[in-house]
Amino acid sequence: MRLELNERGALLLIFASLVILFIVAGTAALGTYKIVTLPEWYWPLSLFFLTFAIGVLAPVAGVGGGVIFVPLVSALYPFHVDFVRGTGLVMAFTSAVVAAPRFLREGLASLRIALPACAVATATSIVGAIIGLQITSAFPQGKYYVLIALGVILLFIFFVMMTAKRVEFPKAKDPDPVSRLFNMRGEYFERTLNTIVQYQASRAGLGLLAFAGVGILAGMFGLGAGWANVPVLNLIMSLPLKVSTSTSILIITMTDATAAWIYIASGAIIPLLVVPAVFGMYIGSKIGSKLVLGIRPVIVKYIFLAIMLFAAIMDIYKGLHGLGVV
């Protein structure tokens, strides 16, 4: 039996997930900073509930979940940032693999657009993962500079998305030679408007160049690539927001697995983090992938923006705190 939710039901589940997210994260912070004493079993159990909530939210925002997991866990849990980044990539891959098939069946995710982007981003994500591990191993305080740089990047993404016009349904532009070569167009049924939305990618050459940079940053910070995939697809390539978020999930299934192997080979994967995170993400993503269909695109936009802003603030604070600035 297929579970279909109306917009009110979907929003209630999203709100409940946000409440779980903040309660678990807040309790973990109290234990990490020695305000209260928490038992050892609390950490894997809390990671399960934290990633369950992230799993519900991530497909709605078009991210793999690492963009929420990495800044939260690195700031509020007593784990080294390398282990957190490695787990973030594995978790983002899990979320994407669970959600992508539904988006493909519904016509929201486009293989014609995802495959060229994956070919570029996968190659550069390996380079990014190697650079990220070298920074934290070569410099004693390198992990804090990594976090600050990540926060600044996320703030830039936030302001670009916040100020952009026609984000939900960008005005169609003439296809460039690359988008014509790969036939980057399609259509899907927008349930909230009861209409068929047609789209045509443009500036695909510039978009693929941007995906090369996205791959480097995704591997370096262990975030998955969804946080940057969506702006590239939506703002540069002029794709509707729901198509951008859904295709972003499809891209993550191929790019993050490659970058994760670099962390696995370096020993930056531990069962204490990965096992509860993957199980929580799997269950949450099964629910989250159903919520996208019943929510208006403008709500998807603001959920994505809220996640970007919160993650940016957490990253910058953790980095400055680690350097003794605040």
Question: How would you describe this structure to a colleague?
Answer:
The structure is a single chain. The chain contains 12 helices and 2 strands, in the order H-H-H-H-H-H-H-E-E-H-H-H-H-H. It is mainly α. It has one domain. A two-stranded antiparallel sheet has the order 1-2. Strand 1 and strand 2 form a beta hairpin. The longest helix is centred in the middle third of the chain and has 28 residues. The model has no long low-confidence stretch (mean pLDDT 81).
Give the SSE layout.
Blueprint: H1 7-32, H2 42-61, H3 66-76, H4 81-105, H5 111-138, H6 142-163, H7 177-181, E1 185-190, E2 195-200, H8 204-221, H9 226-236, H10 241-265, H11 271-291, H12 297-322
Antiparallel strand pairs: 1-2
